[in-house]
């Protein structure tokens, strides 16, 4: 990797808006050091692509001010960058649908925070022609995954649809419900959880470690069936197996899962997924979980969906979006209103606070 950084002419960084400014500044220092060049980024050309209407760096227990401070635009390097603006929504454009122009404008209104908000209820009202509203979770599942008991083995069908939710609790509940309807036997994998510092073993018993269900980590008890979609939680073999890759389970063994890649350049390839040790970074103590780095992916979090394109998208917002850009990301995964199915308690969409920050 050092030789690549020394000789490369251009570095392309996609979805850069999700990255902490310290990551950009660390790359700058590394390139200057490796290339022996004191110019910005060691004289290499850096292409950053992203949309600040989408989600910003994830900072646990943060405020909107913390998100802004971590944003790339707050970096001392930002003034050195030349801004080029792309204005066409290609997901919408490629649909060649009569509603394309109006749908693209409505998405921009959400992304720019221009939807009218009722200050007393903190609710915005989405236009009647913006999406299709479902009355229950069961109806949402049926609209996104019709006849799933017969269709789940069709990789092309499975790869083009997903349900999105803001919180992991909703993701887990819907995933469990959908997998229950798949006509095949379940296989359960339990993780091995250990405390890194042996002096603290007595303070954190195994039962407590097993009970932890953390964002970005697989669960202690991972239950899967043949044919179900899963999403990778770690980079294993880039660019083939990266964090966010969606796969379909093909075969399950004691220490290896064979799966088929559902999307991207390597679509259709069969790969082997091992158990790997994972250490969360946002805990007050260090513990290690040895488990397959995957979760069920009928439903995924909105943040995990950023960068993915879908033909059918369900959006469950019984627990509302809680961070900048989440609603915009969720709604913009598809190219036309009829492909977006939503579910919330009221026809007015309620937000916990303003989900758009002026950046």
Helices and strands in order:
Layout: H1 2-7, E1 10-13, H2 21-35, E2 45-48, H3 64-70, H4 90-93, H5 100-111, E3 117-118, E4 123-124, E5 132-133, H6 137-144, H7 148-151, H8 155-159, E6 161-165, H9 168-180, E7 186-190, E8 192-195, H10 206-211, E9 221-225, E10 229-232, E11 246-252, E12 256-261, E13 270-274, E14 276-278, E15 287-291, E16 294-296, E17 299-301, H11 302-305, E18 312-316, H12 326-331, E19 340-343, E20 349-350
Parallel strand pairs: 1-2, 5-19, 6-17, 6-18, 18-19
Antiparallel strand pairs: 3-4, 4-20, 7-9, 8-15, 10-11, 10-16, 11-12, 12-13, 14-15
Please describe what this structure looks like.
The radius of gyration is 22 Å and the shape is globular. The strands form 6 sheets. Strands 5-19-18-6-17 form a 5-stranded parallel β-sheet. A 5-stranded antiparallel β-sheet has the order 13-12-11-10-16. The chain has helices spanning 2-7, 21-35, 64-70, 90-93, 100-111, 137-144, 148-151, 155-159, 168-180, 206-211, 302-305, 326-331, and strands at 10-13, 45-48, 117-118, 123-124, 132-133, 161-165, 186-190, 192-195, 221-225, 229-232, 246-252, 256-261, 270-274, 276-278, 287-291, 294-296, 299-301, 312-316, 340-343, 349-350. It contains 12 helices and 20 strands. The two termini are 34 Å apart. Helices cover 25% and strands 22% of the residues.
